[in-house]
Amino acid sequence: MTRSEQRATGRIKEISSTANPIIKDIRLLEKKRHREQTNQFIAEGMKLIIDAIEQGWHLQTLIFAASQKLNPNVEKLAANCVAKGVDVLIVPEKVLGAITRRDNPQMVVGIFSRQFIEPSQIRTGGEDVWIALDRIRDPGNLGTIMRTVDAVGAKGVILVGETTDPFATETVRATMGSIFATPICRMSEDDFINFADQWQGLVVGTHLEGSVDYRTPDYSGKPVLLIMGNEQSGMPEKLVQVCHQLIRIPQVGRADSLNLAIATGVCLFEIRRHSLSLEQGAKA
Ligand code: SAM
Fold it and tell me: Which atom of ligand 1 is least distant from the CA of 257?
């Protein structure tokens, strides 16, 4: 039985100091190990928190600035949280700043449970697009990619090997709320190679030595698995071997390569081009 199931209503607490043990504990969520141990992460902003709750994410604690006590929208959210057994903390802005490590923090912050999906939960069909990120290192890149995956109507993200944490505060911030709309699956390199071998559709890798212009393949009528290489070293040979095609974005100028998140965006919008229109949003 979880803590919230044991209690019918949550508790409201006013805390004024960063030395309070509850705040000290929340601040530890800055560390990956603590996020893993507690299965928690921090998300900032009221609209984002309301959207996340509506999408079924489990809010464990709501924290808001004392200056918002008379804000009717915050009051309503806090009352709903308490009614559902979620604890609510009211703190000075400086404490919110310490929790989020920001000079100008959002006035409302939520502590959510992390969610990953299992490989067996990835069921593809139609024109589903999934993206695999090989050992992605940069939190900003990962957040930007998740936001793009959401915007383009791809189905989710597979993190291959040792990667940056999708639930790090910087990553969550960069997703601009798309963390709650984008399924995330983790796989070792070997498991991913098995997974890609069994993919019923097209497996495309992006590579600086790819011989296929990224605009050439026919991406329609089948599920597409797009593989992106690591920021520093690109894609290892083992992953190259599972790709049906290696695509490249033509470049001119002096840059050796594109930023990973930019390259991902360019490819994803091309892969989904036939399914997107201004009039209808996503057609499929
Ligand atoms: N030094 C790395 C290399 O030699 O591959 C550069 C990696 S690049 C910064 C990171 C990833 O972005 C690449 O592995 C690839 O997935 C993608 N990428 C960047 N520019 C690309 C381009 N012009 N065409 C295709 N993919 C590209």
Answer: 20
Tell me, using a 6 A CB cutoff, whether residue 109 lines ligand 1: no
Ligand 1 contact via 246 beta carbon (within 6 Å) = no
Evaluate: CB of 258 within 6 angstroms of ligand 1. yes
CATH number (domain holding residue 104): 3.30.1330.30
Tell me the per-residue pLDDT of 80-96, one tens digit each, with 9 for 90 and over: 999 999 999 999 999 99
Residue 27 lies in a domain: yes
DSSP-derived letter for residue 236 is -
Which class for 249: exposed (0-12), middle (13-18), buried (19 or more C-beta within 10 A)? middle
131 in Cβ contact with 228 (< 8 Å): yes
User: Is residue 260 within 6 Å of ligand 1 at its C-beta?
Assistant: yes
pLDDT greater than 90 at residue 283: no
Question: Does ligand 1 come within 6 angstroms of the Cβ of 240?
Answer: no
| Atom nearest to 227 CA in ligand 1 | 16
Q: Is 10 left (phi over 0), alpha (psi -120 to 50) or beta?
A: beta
Under the banding of pLDDT at 50, 70 and 90, the label for residue 8 is: confident
